[in-house]
């Protein structure tokens, strides 16, 4: 009996390896080799149609073949093997297209420009010594703290206020959430027109500069190059305010605001060196995601029992005290989830920078820098190094989220 059981175990292990290991591998390699040979032989449109037909047929053959193999196993083991049959190909594809590229990227980060020779930690030394890379890391840190903080703060306030509305709550939330429906590229294009700058005497088409140069000042009628009653009215008068290249400002030193600041004072020095263009680009992401945070927080606030809120009000607590002492502790887990999501979103932020400034003028972020090293400078080792840095920043967030979810499930 013991010998029979041992034989059944070995048979089950063998069938499991064939069905869940060898068969998916053969399935994938057959498709890869087939389409590699067909890529240069047939037109792309026909190749797409063929990929759909052949791919679906191969999937059917994959599960059909695994099912036939599993039926050869002992009856007691078939249920477990059938469960693995549906999970196995997914794990195989995740390993092939996620874990392997991640390990390959770490491997390339220790190699030279064209991934020919090992150079040790030279790429990592470059990442923390190169001035341009240091500016990129500085910007990423500023984005992480500022964007996450303001999205959570404004989202909490807006979510709380919308929950206090007696009428029009749905309409208000839809308006606040609307920026989330706009792609990052579209939002960047909108704000690029808002910040737009044209050298004088050209007409300012940016909203901020258009308003700025149209303000009457010191008895002078200032216009944004308009013809009124046949008379040209511009902003070329010395008394009129001049337009400002907002996205061209690396700091406050060229702005009128900073002219009265004392650079020797430490606080004034910090203000002068604030990266204006980077902060203006952060506004785009804050504007885009505040509605998302507000809707999520509003849902969390609605889950708070009314008795708790009423008890606080009966005890004489103000709205602010109720918000601080009851609302925030009660939706703490929701705040952590939104914060985690925003941290990951900021670390992979790409579209806003790429569309607005292309990473120039000291506005770069790690995701754009990774692409620059790969496509612009053709330095695969450094590009992989930047990718590893992004992964290292995201990893603690993912691990912390997994631990928290496990603790919640256990409790």
Descriptive notes:
A hairpin with a 2-residue loop joins β1 and β2. The longest helix has 37 residues. α2 crosses α3, α7 packs across α10 and α11 packs antiparallel against α12. The protein starts with a helix and ends with a helix. The mean pLDDT is 84. It has three domains: 90 residues; 196 residues, MetI-like fold (Orthogonal Bundle), CATH 1.10.3720.10; 81 residues, no CATH class. The chain is an all-alpha fold and 411 residues long. A two-stranded antiparallel sheet has the order 1-2.
Regions with little confidence, pLDDT below 50 for 5+ residues: none
Give the name of the CATH architecture of the largest domain. Answer: Orthogonal Bundle
What Rg is obtained from the alpha carbons, in whole angstroms? 30 Å
- The DSSP helix count reads 16
The main sheet comes to: 2 strands, antiparallel
Q: What gap, in angstroms, lies between the N and C termini?
A: 43 Å
In round numbers, the mean pLDDT is 84
By helix and strand content, what is the structural category? mainly alpha
Q: Looking across the biggest beta sheet, what order are the strands in? A: 1-2
What's the SSE pattern? HHHHHHHHEEHHHHHHHH
Estimated share of beta-strand residues: under 5%
CATH topology label of the largest domain = MetI-like fold
CATH superfamily of the largest domain, called what?
A: MetI-like
CATH top level of the largest domain? Mainly Alpha
Which percent range fits the helix content?
A: 55-70%
